[in-house]
Amino acid sequence: QPQPWLSVHTQVPQDRPYEIPTDFDPNLALAIVWGKDLAEAKARGLEFLEHLELLGENAAGESLRSNIAFLKRHTTDLLAF
Question: Each residue of 31-41: pLDDT tens digit?
């Protein structure tokens, strides 16, 4: 669902199956999230990650691997010094 605080950019088509070449850039999408302050941006980032769906399979028929779980665990650590 579109959000005014979110911009997602990807070269992967959303309307049809797509085979990602073996020499692809591992960044399949870029999500830009903003808020009135860092706390709001982090909360919105977590909301985005909670609703993110990564569908597909690799050549062996296995689900795609991602770092989404890592990002969820570490979003609150952003800019922590």
Answer: 999 999 999 99
